Amino acid sequence: MTTTSDEFTVMVGRLNRLSVERHFDAYADIGWDDPALALDPVDPRFELPAVDPLRHTDWYRRQGPPERARLGCYRWAACMKTGWHFENLLQRGLLRHAFELGNGAPEFRYLHHEIIEESQHTLMFQEFVNRSGLPVRGMPWVLRRLAEWFVVPLARVFPTLFFLFVLGGEDPVDHLQRRVLSDADTTLHPLVERIMRIHTTEEARHLSFARHYLQRTVPELGFIRRLHLAIIAPLVLGIMARLMLQPSGDLVRHCGIPRDVVRSANRSRAGRQLLKDSVAKTRTLIVELGLVTPASKSLWKAVGLWDDAR
Ligand SMILES: [Fe+2]
Ligand SMILES: [Fe+2]
Predict the structure, then answer these.
(1) What's the 121 CA to ligand 2 centre distance in angstroms?
(2) Closest to 72 measured CA to CA, from 86, 85, 54
(3) What is the pTM of this model?
(4) What percent of the chain is helix, strand and coil (3-state, nearest 5)?
(5) Ligand 2 center to residue 169 CA distance, Å?
């Protein structure tokens, strides 16, 4: 499925309207000082959600309730810090992209709605981290530097690839949040729930923009750029999905989780399926755009993201 430039303009207009009608402020719309939302890292509602493969390990079950809750709270805080590191890079890329646009470009206004929303997300994520008091690190240092040097500049020189990175970060997070919010077996801390509901509402627009951007621009690309996308897509998604979904190194160290427990949770049937499902929408889009070649399909399989069942 592709998008013509007229359809793209209509879609961007709709996203602009929705951004004005339904948006959130990190401080006005979250009752940070409401006692019902008080953040205590040993609150049992911080225990890991059922969708997390680590929750189903014997090691996790053997921990006492305060240790399990603390680990779960660290997990949320770590996700939020990684989330805003990603959003910070994304905002810089969107600004670079907007910097190059001419008068009347349909996406100019929407890019700024998205940048503003990502700033609000960054504020709410860091506020949660501060209130947890936990020493979460976010994205590994090397990845942060590599992304600054090589991914942010793509927004100007190869914006289609930049928006593929955007999908690589946003799609797995969105998938995880929707699974957690709709899971009857998970009792969520109300502060985490509030943050996730705000985030999924606004991220739906960001994902829609990035998907339509690819649908509009990929058909116009030449052979070499399409080949680049076909090869890079599974690698980008393989790294990004793991970064967003799997326990971070500082979490493992801080909570003293044995490495083999983390490895077996990640490699469990549920862990591998979660990874595949988390990129399902982007994978379908890449297939529809004709960017899966026989050679790139083996890369999708090698990074554990190809799903023959779907
Ligand atoms: Fe966000
Ligand atoms: Fe976003």
Answers:
(1) 8
(2) 54
(3) 0.95
(4) 75, 0, 25
(5) 9
